[in-house]
From TrEMBL, chains A, B:
GO cellular component, one term: lysosomal membrane
Reaction it catalyzes: monodehydro-L-ascorbate radical(out) + L-ascorbate(in) = monodehydro-L-ascorbate radical(in) + L-ascorbate(out)
Transmembrane segments: 12-38, 58-76, 88-107, 127-149, 161-180, 200-221
InterPro entries in alphabetical order: CYB561/CYBRD1-like, Cyt_b561/ferric_Rdtase_TM
Topological relation to the membrane, as annotated: Multi-pass membrane protein
Key words of the record: Cytoplasmic vesicle, Electron transport, Heme, Iron, Membrane, Metal-binding, Translocase, Transmembrane, Transmembrane helix, Transport
Name the record gives this protein: Transmembrane ascorbate-dependent reductase CYB561
Broad class of the protein's primary localization: membrane
Domain named Cytochrome b561: residues: 20-221
Pfam families found in the cross-reference section: Cytochrom_B561
Length: 252, 252
């Protein structure tokens, strides 16, 4: 059993689950590219193809990179806590910048085409999730990196940061599914019901997006797979308190 | 702090979160009814209105009742374990039957109208979630109620049952959002972008559906709010092992 291993060991099954999540994540990114290339004329910043920048950037940023940022603490188990923390924050910065490009693309495209903004359920979820993502990053950075909060504040905020991090990721997956559905219905309309190749490909992409979300959540949810506190950290680092269970009953 | 309370006490904030979840859940059911009544001509088993049975039944069964079934172990903290277990299983049975009526309604409606079945992303998710829900119920019933599995099998399956229970619930919320989006785009089409009252109402309903999902997940995720093992149960019941953390490192 994993739970009997020492604190610096990696649980036996974890690498396989992480590898599977990466396979799913890369497949989702590749399939999004294939969908846009095969059925939507590819990608460009000018003209009608500018719209296609939106789904690709959102899937790379808000799904794949955001998901991987959440897995950093499960994958980097032996590295210094601060290094892992900086990597977690940096991956979220990359995800945020790529998603911002995707957002600018769709607003710019709507403006050129004189389309209305922010009327659909997808867009309401999208804006909400993007704002929450920024707030979560900013508060996380302030508490855990710079300037940093006190032991007690950190250990009280930490479970909230983890819960809302996972929630924002799941809402991002949900928002992507709504966007995919919208893109299909706008273009295919009643043709969607005739099992067009584009419809089937996009449905499979939707299922794989959900599978990636569930796999990341599964890895995060395994108590045995959490990054264990390292002896060196416990003695040297101010971060020790943030690694423990804090004031949960199981730590009594 | 809740964690310092005795094993049979109720954490201070829990009732407020549960009350809030019920307010959200009932609002979602009422708004679904209002949407169907105001903009879709109401509900009937015959004719075009048969379709409307589908969203209402799915929201009552797969969202509200399924969510409440997950909260049973947080709300009934002092009752006998077996009573709580039976209530959890029964709520899922009610949810399943109501959802089955909703499924029959949409297939029957499609048949009468000669519409294609199971072509959309919503329908693929829907069928998958419904099958997973049945399998989860059946395996849960077999392991925990009748005939029941051994201590060690139960304690190994329990975390999986909890994870997949929450996952199926979240997938149900996602499926409802996809269905809502589909219903809006099929009827409103390009009118959706003119902020029609129906579109705005349905968007708000979509956000509230997600809020209900997040609130239930938040209550489930609080380690301090888990149902504590009761002294009497520990001595008398065969279920004791299923209440503890099993073989997680925090119980060492």
């Amino acid at each position: 059993m994993e739970s009997r291993l020492g604190p610096v060991s990696t649980p036996g099954a974890l690498p396989y689950y992480v590898a599977f999540s990466q396979l799913l994540g890369l497949t989702v990114v590749a399939m999004t590219g294939a969908w846009l290339g095969l059925y939507r004329g590819g990608i460009a910043w000018e003209g009608t193809l500018q719209f296609n920048v939106h789904p690709l950037c959102m899937v790379i940023g808000m799904i794949f990179l955001q998901g991987d940022a959440l897995l950093v603490y499960r994958v980097f188990r032996k590295e210094a806590k601060r290094t892992t923390k900086v990597l977690h924050g940096l991956l979220h910065v990359f995800a945020f910048i790529i998603a911002l490009v995707g957002l600018v693309a769709v607003f710019d495209y709507h403006k050129k085409k004189s389309y209305a903004d922010l009327y659909s359920l997808h867009s309401w979820f999208g804006i909400l999730v993007f704002v929450l993502y920024f707030v979560q990053w900013f508060v996380g950075f302030s508490f855990f990196l710079f300037p940093g909060a006190s032991f007690s504040l950190r250990s009280r905020y930490r479970p909230q940061h983890i819960f809302f991090g996972a929630t924002i990721f799941l809402l991002s997956v949900g928002t992507a599914l709504l966007g995919l559905k919208e893109a299909l219905l706008f273009k295919l309309g009643s043709q969607y019901s005739t099992f067009q190749p584009e419809g089937v490909l996009a449905n499979v992409l939707g299922l794989l997006l959900a599978c990636f979300g569930v796999t990341v959540l599964y890895i995060l949810a395994q108590a045995d797979w959490k990054r264990p506190p390292q002896a060196e950290e416990q003695a040297l680092s101010m971060d020790f308190k943030t690694l423990t269970e804090g004031d949960s009953p199981s730590s009594q």
